[in-house]
Each structure stands twice: as C-alpha cells, then as structure tokens.
C-alpha cells in the first residue's frame, strides 16, 4: 500500500524516494526516517568520527537521530536514515532492511552461509 508523503516544511505532496522537495520555493532536503517511518527534513547534528562512522542527522519530525543508509552512501536508490542509538548503528534504513529481508533471505543467506563455511574450514 503506497503511503502519501508530504514535505514537513511546506506540506507539498512528495515522492517517497525524493531527496529534495519538488516545490521550487522550498527545495528542502528530504530523507526517510526509520524511526517515524515518514519522509522528513533533517538537520546536521554531528560529524562521524573515523572512517567507519557516519555523520549524524536529526529528524525534524521525531527528533531522533539517524545516519545515512549505506545504500544511500554508496549512491544507491535510497534516501533513508538508518536508526542509531541501540547497541550499534544500523547499516541500512528500514526500507532497505525490508528489501533485503524480502529477496535477501535466499541471496544474503547463502552468501553468509558460504562465508561462514569458509571460515570454519580455514580454522581446521
Ligand atoms: Zn517542501
Ligand atoms: Zn523521524
Ligand atoms: Zn536505505
């Protein structure tokens, strides 16, 4: 069921994958927040320290903190902010997790099984 998204700044209806609001007077940067599962604008919070940590952003809707989804970082078709705050930062946003969950169980599952199998063999 496709959801109708709105720009939180100008209430313009927007596409769920939009990176920037299509309203020429607004043009706010948009992202999909994994906390509130809505399209939001975000503010820069804190630069990531070191190679493996990502810059942190605050969602203007729920004010929780997210990092850019790895798919987004890699230039993929994604505008999601992944959740932070639990034991570790999630690599992917809720939508990519869902996508991976759907098709990944076979593909990713086998890749993981293969990698683990390799590790076990090497240890002998
Ligand atoms: Zn807007
Ligand atoms: Zn949010
Ligand atoms: Zn994503």
Secondary-structure blueprint of this entry?
Blueprint lengths: L4 E2 L6 E2 L15 E4 L4 E9 L9 E4 L5 E4 L1 H4 L6 E4 L10 H30 L1
Bound molecules: zinc ion (ZN) (3 copies).
One zinc ion (ZN) binds next to helix 1 and helix 2.
The coarse silhouette is globular
Q: Write down how many β-strands occur, each being a DSSP E stretch of 2 or more residues.
A: 7
Number of domains: 1
Strand order of the largest sheet: 3-4-5-6-7
Average pLDDT confidence is: 85
Tell me the Rg in angstroms: 17 Å
Describe the sheet with the most strands.
5 strands, mixed, barrel
Low-confidence stretches: none
Q: In sequence order, what are the helices and strands, one letter per element?
A: EEEEEEHEH
Question: What structural category arises from helix and sheet content?
Answer: alpha+beta
Q: What amount of the residues lies in strands?
A: 15-25%
User: How far apart are the first and last residues' alpha carbons, in Å?
Assistant: 50 Å
The ligands found in this model are: zinc ion
Oligomeric grouping of the chains = single chain
Helix content: 25-40%
Question: What's the total helix number?
Answer: 2
């Amino acid at each position: 069921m496709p959801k109708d998204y709105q720009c939180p700044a100008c209430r313009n209806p927007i596409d769920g994958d939009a990176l920037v609001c299509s309203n020429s007077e607004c043009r706010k940067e948009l992202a999909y927040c994994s906390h509130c599962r809505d399209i939001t604008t975000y503010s820069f919070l804190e630069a990531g320290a070191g190679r493996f940590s990502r810059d942190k952003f605050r969602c203007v809707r729920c004010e929780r903190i997210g990092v850019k989804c790895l798919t987004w970082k890699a230039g993929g078709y994604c505008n999601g902010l992944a959740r932070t705050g639990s034991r570790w930062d999630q690599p992917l946003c809720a939508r990519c997790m869902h996508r991976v969950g759907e098709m990944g169980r076979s593909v990713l599952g086998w890749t993981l099984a293969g990698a683990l199998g390799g590790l076990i063999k090497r240890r002998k």
